[in-house]
């Protein structure tokens, strides 16, 4: 496995790969890899000749009051995991390599980036779209892999790819959960033992909604109320948002027809977690 | 010469070109071609194996009160000119091909896009950066060619290419002028005979500034005043801006050291013309 820290280094490596007619898969991550990331890398390994994993805690997608500084980092551990699972290249640039002095260009995706995390975290998806655009231009992957845990992120990136005519296939991969249901997240390490236990309310409230739908509930506001009251029953949980929106446009709905996204963001102490499920009528 | 109206058509054509190992040059235009455009195409012809000329009056770079609807168009004439000069492909999409329903992604370049035409035409460079980003992704040119008449546009595009790690070389080509000094522009057709005559004040005032610099003038505000008073002496001229700014950052200057951009935008009746020159100490 090769570790590249600079753009020219990665480019020259991938130029040789491309010249051999090999396909390239990209798994963009912020590192501190868990089984969710590894399932993306495994999927890439199956579909592409060469698998590039980018590890970059992207400053432009964090707000000024957010956890950029304390976001967990461990490149050595990440590199061992990528090597073990059969990734070929890690691209781990410094922030100044991606955003040198004078940097001033951003990609803005409207519409689908506005509700949910777009409303809670102003500028977040601008940073995501910009760094993913840059990574696509640097790596020129045939396929890029993203986790469904960041469901809205996938929709934003698909919109960007379509609108800007980027020549890359986007594949999204299901959420990986702990045995007790907690969705894997690099931010789970922030949780105290009590918060870790309380955070189970997320997957449980999603399950509750799915059960209600299975039993015939189609009223969106009743489903939302059910999830909200379930989460509020957990004293350590502080709701940021609970929404049920259309797919792929993320517009409000009255009735569940076909399918919809149930997405939530909840704080436990200082730690904000997200989770989601697709409700299918 | 081939005329492509759709993105898939162009892409499949260029895929074959690329498979043969041929280099691709792109000349992005809004059509109604004049000798300025033709000098770009000639430059592309010399440097690249296959020359693509895009002809697209891009709605997103026009403000609501601007001349999008009446901007001159003549694809048949343009096609004959491109064929004559040896262009290989014209890409002339409909607006809905480039911006289908639901379109919502834009590229924003800060800093260099803010003064001059960026201040006079809010959103203009957002539209320019977005359409050029799209064209680069569709065509994937080795080199793209732009005219120095739109000097700020070249700086905005270079900034975007650098910031977003686009793999394309940008070449800029000198302004082409009528024998009497008027810079070529598709908008010159709007001018009445009187306005056409009055518009000579643009190139003359640029020459005047260059002469003053040759004689040792280095004071930016005095040079600006000179140009402004020269233009104001023409009763049909209405100044939008006259500025002398640093290259490539377009920041204000007190003294001319090395070089600077003298740029102006002036209205003659309803017609807004731009012109510029580089002042060299």
Automatic annotation (TrEMBL), chains A, B:
Active site: 37 (proton donor)
Chief location bin: cytoplasm
Pathway membership, UniProt: Cofactor biosynthesis; (R)-pantothenate biosynthesis; (R)-pantothenate from (R)-pantoate and beta-alanine: step 1/1
Enzyme Commission number: 6.3.2.1
Taxonomic superkingdom: Bacteria
Pfam families: Pantoate_ligase
Keyword Ligase applies: yes
Gene Ontology process terms (BP): pantothenate biosynthetic process
Residue sites binding ATP per the record: 30-37, 147-150, 176, 184-187
Residues reported in the UniProt entry to bind beta-alanine: 61
Single GO cellular component term: cytosol
Catalysed reaction equations from the record: (R)-pantoate + beta-alanine + ATP = (R)-pantothenate + AMP + diphosphate + H(+)
Localization (cell): Cytoplasm
MF annotations from Gene Ontology: ATP binding; pantoate-beta-alanine ligase activity
Residues that, per the record, bind (R)-pantoate: 61, 153
Gene3D superfamilies assigned: HUPs, Pantoate-beta-alanine ligase, C-terminal domain
Misc. remarks from the entry: The reaction proceeds by a bi uni uni bi ping pong mechanism.
PANTHER family: CYTIDYLATE KINASE/PANTOATE-BETA-ALANINE LIGASE (PTHR21299), PANTOATE--BETA-ALANINE LIGASE (PTHR21299:SF1)
Family: Belongs to the pantothenate synthetase family.
Stored NCBIfam families: cyt_tran_rel (TIGR00125), panC (TIGR00018)
Protein role: Catalyzes the condensation of pantoate with beta-alanine in an ATP-dependent reaction via a pantoyl-adenylate intermediate.
Self-association state and partner proteins as the record states: Homodimer.
The name this protein goes by in its record: Pantothenate synthetase
Origin species: Desulfotomaculum nigrificans (strain DSM 14880 / VKM B-2319 / CO-1-SRB)
């Amino acid at each position: 496995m090769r570790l590249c820290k600079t753009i020219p280094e990665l480019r020259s490596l991938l130029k040789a790969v491309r010249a051999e007619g090999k396909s390239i898969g990209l798994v963009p991550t912020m590192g501190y890899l868990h089984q969710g990331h590894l399932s993306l890398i495994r999927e890439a390994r199956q579909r592409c000749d060469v698998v590039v994993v980018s590890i970059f805690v992207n400053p432009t997608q964090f707000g000024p009051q957010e956890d950029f500084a304390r976001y967990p980092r461990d490149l050595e551990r990440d590199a061992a995991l990528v090597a073990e699972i059969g990734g070929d290249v890690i691209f781990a640039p410094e922030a100044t390599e991606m955003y040198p002095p004078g940097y001033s260009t951003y990609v803005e995706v409207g519409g689908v980036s506005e509700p949910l995390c777009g409303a809670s975290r102003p500028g977040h998806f601008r940073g995501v779209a910009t760094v993913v655009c840059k990574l696509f231009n640097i790596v020129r992957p045939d396929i890029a892999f993203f986790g469904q845990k960041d469901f809205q992120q996938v929709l934003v990136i698909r919109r960007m790819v379509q609108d800007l005519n980027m020549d890359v296939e986007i594949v999204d991969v299901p959420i990986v959960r702990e045995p007790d249901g907690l969705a894997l997240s690099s931010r789970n390490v922030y949780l105290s033992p009590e918060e870790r236990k309380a955070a189970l309310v997320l997957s449980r409230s999603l399950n509750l909604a799915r059960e209600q739908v299975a039993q015939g509930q189609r009223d969106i506001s009743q489903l939302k109320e059910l999830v909200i009251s379930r989460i509020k029953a957990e004293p350590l949980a502080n709701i940021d948002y609970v929404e049920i929106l259309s797919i792929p446009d993320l517009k409000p709905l009255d009735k569940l027809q076909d399918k919809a996204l149930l997405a939530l963001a909840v704080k436990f102490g200082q730690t904000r977690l997200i989770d989601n499920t697709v409700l299918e009528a």
